[in-house]
């Protein structure tokens, strides 16, 4: 799990990875160029490299890192004066299995 302010991105983050990273970077840079970038804190999990068989299931590494990612998000929200309250826990793997179907 990694977490950082967008304006203080570590040098190790190259943004040269998957298409989602590139799209996110372009969107953030354009928003910044237009002067409309809000406080932006990025929390990411290093994905498991999928071989030839693609799936919408989450790897055990992703599921195990989820709580750490949520704690990083909660810590940052608290620093901004926002209190987070978790309700109606839905397992992430359930969301992943349904999201691509449009649910």
Automatic annotation (TrEMBL):
It comes from the Bacteria. Keywords: Aspartyl protease, Hydrolase, Protease. GO terms for biological process: protein processing. One of its GO terms (molecular function) is aspartic-type endopeptidase activity. The keyword Metal-binding does not apply. Gene3D superfamilies: HybD-like (3.40.50.1450). Belongs to the peptidase A31 family. This is Hydrogenase expression/formation protein.
């Amino acid at each position: 799990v990694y977490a950082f302010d967008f304006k203080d991105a570590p040098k190790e983050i190259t943004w040269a990875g998957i298409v989602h990273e590139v799209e996110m970077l372009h969107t953030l840079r354009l928003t910044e160029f237009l002067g409309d970038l809000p406080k932006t804190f990025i929390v990411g999990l290093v994905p498991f490299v999928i071989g030839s068989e693609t799936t919408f299931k989450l790897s055990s590494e992703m599921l195990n890192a989820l709580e750490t990612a949520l704690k990083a998000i909660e810590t940052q929200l608290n620093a901004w004066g926002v209190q987070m309250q978790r309700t109606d826990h839905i397992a992430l793997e359930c969301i992943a299995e349904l999201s691509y179907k449009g649910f």
